[in-house]
């Protein structure tokens, strides 16, 4: 096996300071496996790491949504063999892609007990998103405790928002409104209708008046935009729940009097619930949970800059980087 590999490295704090570098292939311990990365998805947090607005510990190879093939196993590892297709099962500390080298690389070291074999019938592209699917399931079930028959609004038709809408439909929401911002009209709002939303609106006064006419009991805010958080509090029904998962920089001007007078709940959630992973496989196999619909692009790792720019322009939803693909480095 070769000694060095290509990896996308955040080499210093602050804006930028991100480049493709040659770094050593990771060494593994007795209880580790070495993965040859198949795919790693671009998360919004990766974009924030590039701009310096999300914490990380440079120098570090970023990327935390990955699948791979076992290239080497530690001497104490059982249950895996070289050549097995594997994916994320649970996180470990220090967290890959933030405080330890992650998946935007040719190889990744992982504790064996934090991975599982990619389930039958699940592609490696979809398997790269097991780390992701835990979050929308937790938002709908654990945080909102959505009940069948409740009306729902979702702001932010990125991958998390789209999956929230999909899961809310599975859980029996009576009506789902997806609300997007500028740039969402071409791809993301139509995708919301495909994934279970009853209507898809462009954020603004007209859309908010329509929502207020028959207000949702639950509003999932997945964009991080201050205006969307403020609108959620203004529009949700009395005794409603506002569930926050988007990351934004503020400032926020929330009507706290309405929170009190209308007995609203504002609930935040970071991360997911690992216990839902096996069920998510069954939901995907049945066709109810359409994770594959959110994966719009696969690009070479060496074209990471073009891929990041495409994600920022909202020209894709989930963009995967493949270290094995050849391309022209920008």
Task: Give the helix level as a range of percent.
Answer: 25-40%
The best one-word shape is globular
Q: Compute the number of helices.
A: 10
Q: Note the beta-strand portion.
A: 25-35%
CATH domain class of the largest domain: Alpha Beta
The second-level CATH architecture of the largest domain is Alpha-Beta Complex
State the end-to-end distance.
Answer: 27 Å
Number of DSSP strand runs:
16
> What is the count of structural domains?
2
Major beta sheet, specifics? 7 strands, mixed
Name its key features.
about 325 residues, alpha/beta, Quinone Oxidoreductase, Chain A, domain 1, Rossmann fold, seven-stranded mixed β-sheet, six-stranded parallel β-sheet, 10 helices, about 25% strand
3D structure, described in words:
There is one protein chain. The chain has 330 residues and is an alpha/beta fold. It has 2 domains: 158 residues, Alpha-Beta Complex (Quinone Oxidoreductase, Chain A, domain 1), CATH 3.90.180.10; 136 residues, 3-Layer(aba) Sandwich (Rossmann fold), CATH 3.40.50. Strands 3, 5, 6, 7, 8, 15 and 16 form a 7-stranded mixed beta sheet that branches. The protein has a 6-stranded parallel beta sheet with strand order 11-10-9-12-13-14, sandwiched between helices. The mean pLDDT is 96. It starts with a strand and ends in an 8-residue tail after the last strand. The chain is built from 10 helices and 16 strands.
């Amino acid at each position: 096996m070769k000694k060095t590999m290509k990896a996308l490295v955040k080499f210093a704090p602050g804006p930028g300071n991100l480049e493709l570098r040659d770094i050593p292939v990771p060494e593994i311990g007795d209880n580790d496996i070495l993965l040859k990365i198949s795919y790693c998805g671009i998360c919004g947090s990766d974009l924030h790491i590039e701009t310096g607005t999300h914490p990380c510990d440079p120098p570090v190879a970023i990327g935390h949504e990955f699948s791979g093939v076992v290239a080497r196993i530690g001497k104490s590892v059982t249950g895996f063999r070289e050549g097995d297709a594997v994916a994320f099962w649970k996180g470990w500390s220090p967290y890959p892609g933030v405080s330890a080298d992650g998946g935007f690389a040719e190889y990744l070291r992982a504790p064996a007990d934090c991975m599982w074999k990619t389930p039958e019938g699940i592609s490696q592209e979809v398997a790269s998103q097991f780390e992701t699917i835990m979050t929308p399931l937790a938002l709908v079930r654990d945080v909102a405790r959505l009940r069948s028959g409740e009306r729902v609004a979702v702001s932010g038709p990125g991958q998390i928002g789209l999956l929230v809408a999909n899961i809310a439909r599975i859980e029996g929401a009576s009506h789902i409104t997806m609300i997007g911002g500028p740039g969402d009209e071409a791809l993301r709002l139509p995708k919301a209708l495909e994934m279970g939303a009853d209507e898809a609106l462009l954020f603004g006064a007209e859309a908010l008046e329509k929502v207020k006419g028959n207000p949702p009991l639950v509003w999932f805010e997945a964009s991080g935009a201050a205006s969307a958080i403020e609108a959620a509090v203004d529009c949700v029904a009395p005794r409603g729940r506002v569930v926050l998962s988007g990351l934004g920089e503020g400032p926020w001007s929330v009507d706290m009097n309405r929170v009190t007078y209308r007995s609203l709940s504002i609930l935040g959630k970071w991360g997911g619930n690992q216990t839902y992973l096996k069920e998510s496989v069954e939901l995907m196999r049945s066709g109810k949970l359409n994770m594959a619909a959110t994966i719009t692009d696969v690009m070479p790792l060496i074209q990471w800059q073009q891929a990041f720019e495409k994600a920022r322009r909202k020209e894709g939803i989930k963009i995967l980087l493949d270290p094995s693909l050849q391309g022209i480095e920008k």
